[in-house]
Amino acid sequence: MTNTLALRLSTDRKTTPSANKAGTQANVSNAFGLLSGREFSCPGQTAACEAVCYAGKLENIFKGFRAVMESNWNAVKDASANDIARSLNHLIGEFRIAANKRGASLDFRIHHDGDFFSRAYARAWSAVILSNPDVNFWAYTRSFTPGNNVVDILAGIPNLTLYLSVDEGNAEWVDEIISEHPDILIATLTDTAAEGAAMMGEWRNRPGAACPEVMGRIPLITVNGGACISCGLCPNGKADIRFAAKGK
Length: 248
Hints:
With about 250 residues, this protein is of the alpha/beta class. The chain has one domain. The protein is built from nine helices and eleven strands. The chain has a seven-stranded parallel β-sheet with strand order 1-2-3-6-7-11-8. A two-stranded antiparallel sheet has the order 4-5. It has a two-stranded antiparallel ribbon with strand order 9-10. Strand 4 (about 145) and strand 5 form a beta hairpin.
């Protein structure tokens, strides 16, 4: 039997589909991440993204968290698409077992840290998503600029909600992407939600929704799971979304 790469899932309180009885901790790991930064898995990182990157900050604060991200990155950075896909399929299998045991929804966040760093890596994820039609995947990406555009590989997959992660540093390429893929969703990053609505107006005739957890309207986690699952906007692709760095 061919060995799989040494990859590990992450337990993210915001994305988890299941929590403990106190509603304070996740008990299903439903996220996957890689070491962040331009020199690692984020070739499309912008100055705005770097300034507010919560995952990058966690890497600096928590050595154990960074160790997992670094281990995942080292495992996939030079691996073939086939080896990556086989190993990710194994992880999704682990997630499915844990979620079913808890009676939790099969919602999976790709890249709570990191991004699609190459087309080969994106092809691996495409194969995994298509091989697991019962799982609902969602992801945000800045890999839509010249030199590393993976959107054509991932757009249109029925069980993947893909967001272009947009700020002033990469907005100039959005028109081209949405002209080719008009159904793709947009996630803006600005200082305030109002600024996000103005930016969204460049491409949409609707402002999209401000992330309710960032705006303080819903808690990070409850007994019903993380904010992303409770809200449902992003996992289910219900709307374009606005993230406000200043939380208002």
